Amino acid sequence: MERMFPVADAHCDFLYYMYYNHYSLKKAAPRQAVALPYLRKGGAAMQFFAAWVDPDARASGLQQCLWLIDAYYRMLEDCADAGVIPFSPEFTPEGGKIATVLTVEGGEALMGQEENLRLFYRLGVRAMTLTWNATNELAHPAMSRVNRGLTKLGRIIVREMDRIGMAVDVAHLSDAGIDDVLSIVRRPIFSSHTNARAICPHRRSLSDEHIRAISKQGGVICVNYYPPQLNRTGEAGIDDVVRHILHVAQVGGIEHVALGSDFDGMVEYPNGLNNWGDVPNLLSALLQAGLSEEEVRCIAYDNLYKYIAQFY
After folding, report:
1. Tens of pLDDT along 188-216?
2. Which among 231, 227, 243 has a CA at the least distance from the CA of 282?
3. Helical segments of the chain, H only
4. What b/e sequence results for 92-123 when a residue is b if at least 16 CB atoms lie within 10 Å of its CB, and e otherwise?
5. Would strands 44-52 and 84-86 be described as parallel, antiparallel, or unpaired?
6. Does a structural domain hold residue 107?
7. Domain that holds residue 34
8. How far is CA 277 from CA 171, 217, 237, in A?
9. Which of 72, 102, 216, 293 has its CA 20 to 30 A from that of 52?
10. Does a structural domain hold residue 1?
11. Is residue 108 part of a domain?
12. Helix axis angle, 114-122 relative to 152-164, nearest 10°?
């Protein structure tokens, strides 16, 4: 399939592997999914880069996050001649450049300090997930055995994110936590890499109730490619990703679904979707499923662009 659409992606873990495994964006290492040759082949116009905080690491969450933020800016310097640039609302995908958005995955990075949130914002961070898969000072994750929401500090942090204009990412958050966030914020929230629980019953996926609530509020639900969240057979393909996208579009509206691959954050991928260069296969499958070119363009790029532009 020839490139027909610009593509935006709301989540990848490249920065972690750049820092710890010496990945380079310019040249792909074995199993690397986010690299310029793949990005170009896949029609990439915008990529969110997450600074993921490993709760089991020896270094503090703040230190880990700063290491990956530094990696992000080193990446930009190294790839400036290749057209990799920081996102701005004036960005247009037609020029062949790739806009980047810096995010944080895991509220452990704050070390319990509201001041660190504001510092991250000044360093260019425009979105943050409150948790990963472990309970922290802010909230309880979807993977917890108990469905508990935000802590007192978590509520303070969400209010401050809303005030300064940092997008609240509810990926990995418990159902009760999502309810709490929705009760606090005035700005739209999003889920950067998730799926539809009605299609595959996984705790990390969103209920139809939350898909509707996030959509009604003006947010976006970004579907990921993680096989255990796509189906329960142990092997997934592009058709599974399509089913989740179509379900989110049906429940929340076509203008509230986007892509959030989780590339470089998985040890396994769906058949036919192993790296950024395979994304046109997904877009082609969406067309074959009956969506119009305008609808596919919205899912591939426009919805996520419109969402994140509000935070700049």
Report:
1. 999 999 999 999 999 999 999 999 999 99
2. 243
3. 14-21, 36-42, 61-79, 114-122, 152-164, 175-184, 208-216, 227-230, 238-252, 279-288, 293-297, 303-309
4. ebeeebbbbbbbbbbbbbbeeeeebbeebbeb
5. unpaired
6. yes
7. 7-309
8. 24, 33, 15
9. 216
10. no
11. yes
12. 30
Total domains present in the chain: 1
Does the predicted model carry a pTM greater than 0.70?
A: yes
SS3 assignment, position 161: helix
What the block records as the tokens of 286 is 């969406």
* Residue recorded with tokens 């009604």: 216
Side-chain-facing half-sphere of 294: CA atoms under 13 Å: 1
User: Tens digit of pLDDT for each residue in 153-188?
Assistant: 999 999 999 999 999 999 999 999 999 999 999 999
Q: What is the CATH number of the domain that holds 118?
A: 3.20.20.140
Helices marked H in 52-174:
61-79, 114-122, 152-164
Find out whether 278 and 42 touch, Cβ atoms under 8 Å: yes
Q: From residue 68, how far is each of 128, 166, 173 by CA, in Å? A: 14, 18, 22
Cα(23)–Cα(29) distance, integer angstroms: 7
